[in-house]
Amino acid sequence: MKTVALSLLVSLGVATLPARGETVATGSIERIEVTSLTRERITLVAHALLTQVAAGTKQSFVGEVAVANVAIPVTTPVWVAVRPVKGTNEAKVYISLELGKVPEALLARAGTRALDLSLKGFLKGERGSSAPVCAIGLMRYGTQEVFAPATLGNAFFSFLGARLTGMTLSETSGEATVVLYNPFSFAIPLRRITYSLEAEDRKLGSGEVPATRIRPKQENKILVPISVGNGDLIAVAGGAVMGGGDIEGRLVAKLSFKIGADEITLPISLPGKIQVSR
User: How many CB atoms lie within 10 A of CB 60?
Assistant: First the structure.
């Protein structure tokens, strides 16, 4: 979920956007840093260069913040830390957003290769000062322009383990259970899950789950069919195959989501128990 583009709208009721034709400050958004991602909220810092700012190092932003021209409410006030540097101003814009407030329109408009972010409004600073802001950035995923630690998405995926119950002379079959949590107020189209079940660096089985929809604001359990060759299973499980028992395993998968007209693939690797039942 961390790679779904966000759009943000701030309206404190104390200012309006610059009128058409009015001169506004220009600037650029250079980088986005995701600092926290939970099931309820995402917080991030937008690093910008601005030609005009209000007075003081601690300011607030009033106006519209948008991704792909889609806007949603964020937590206010939006604080901005400002520092003059070599003829311009470095600004850190601190943004916090409830994931449940992201509008469904963003799903159709967001890009899968870059984050299109804009700020349009005013900075308010000390002694009643203000400065107009119009800053735009196009930051590519997979580069330093969009930074988010890989562990931030762990709260949205879990592997409840696999249970192998059907044994024949050549293979053992069963199913694994994956849980995907959708924090949004709308369903997310999941085109496919391609997966493999592994233990002790050995691939036990693999396959693909077809398209489904991840229901909103809840955990979604997905059953993944597993077929394991008995030779591979005995090599890693030993006595557990003969008498029943648990072994440590891992589900390695790629989740392919439909975002707009494109597709984004999210890799996951989740530990869990593999239960062998006789």
Answer: 20
